[in-house]
Amino acid sequence: MKRLAIALLSVLTLVSCGKKQEPYSVRMVRSEMKRNPSALYLDGRQGALKWNYTTGLELLSFLDVAKAYALDDVEAYVKDWADTMTTLEGGIHSYKKEAYNVDHICPARMFFFFDEVYGGQTDRYRKVIDTIWQQVENQPRTEGGEFWHKQIYPHQVWLDGLYMALPFYAEYALRIAPESQRDSLFGDIADQFVKAAANTYDEATGLYRHAWDESKSMFWCNPQTGQSDHAWGRANGWFAAALVDVLDYFPQDNPRRIELIALLNHFVEVLPKWADPQTGMWYQVMDCPGREGNYLESTCSAMFIYAFLKGLNNGYIDESRQDYIKGLYGKFIDTFIRENEDGTISMTACCSVGGLGGKQNRRGDYEYYLSEPVIENDCKGVGPFIWASLEWEKLNGIL
Questions:
Q1: 270-290 burial string, b = 16+ CB within 10 Å, else e?
Q2: Domains and CATH numbers, the chain
């Protein structure tokens, strides 16, 4: 907490050199840009042209910082990736609609901004949006109407997919879809949250299991419930982050909005019970706190804190929670943010990946989640930390 207090003081007052200390949102963007002079190198891509949600997620957070602090060079950094990954005709490098992979919906979110700003000069951004919308419209679904995670994972609903698909879906419904269709579209979005919650809910813990198999046939699921074995931290984090992002676009007068806010507040009620008492942060395998080998994981912790701060700022969470939520941000910095000798900052203890099935036959048991590499500055954590920082900066009057 001491470092956080010093950082806040230096933002609000002039330091000896006569300059203001940059807030953490800007510092992390600058650090990542220094480590990766081109966005094509984010997430270890080494310059490869790949339409991937990890880069898209982090760059969307960069774009929000650029807008908040009027940083034209940061916006140009993001736009360069968007223009490199697409053609003037709206083609998308390495994208295959027929894969019906919900991960491939997420990177298109930034294109709404570029279409708004540059749409009078080119229609490439709208064409990209329209291409991705065609996937949304045709995405295979469970009998209950939930999106399959991928074509190669039939009948499977992963909590990750709520974030990958539904914020884009909601923004499209508000900005572009015919007004006559909006109630139906937002109803579908709400249904996907509510049904995913019901199908993955663990009554014993109040948490949500990573995934659910409608067919109840996958080797990783319980044959009676269809649920995977554990409440993985980042899966729950994706769920919470998806809720607050979708609420940005959900109509104020739509009665289903109340259900989404209730789901968010369920996280507020339950998550403190599963946090590490000393740091306030959350474990890689959330339902096994303190078990040998388990570790405090930064990407899920960043997602929860982002969702809580945004929920507080937007009035979804009662102000009685303010002190607890504000305190989490400082604890996160003390636990996971490292100051580097070159002036950059790094985010530690990031689980690099987590999934079920596939070529690796990932079983989703306790040992599996601990077997994945732990790295620094993972896009899936850096983006949520930047968003959490922006929300904290709003809450404290810096923005």
A1: ebeebbbeeebbbbbbbbbee
A2: 2-395 (1.50.10.10)
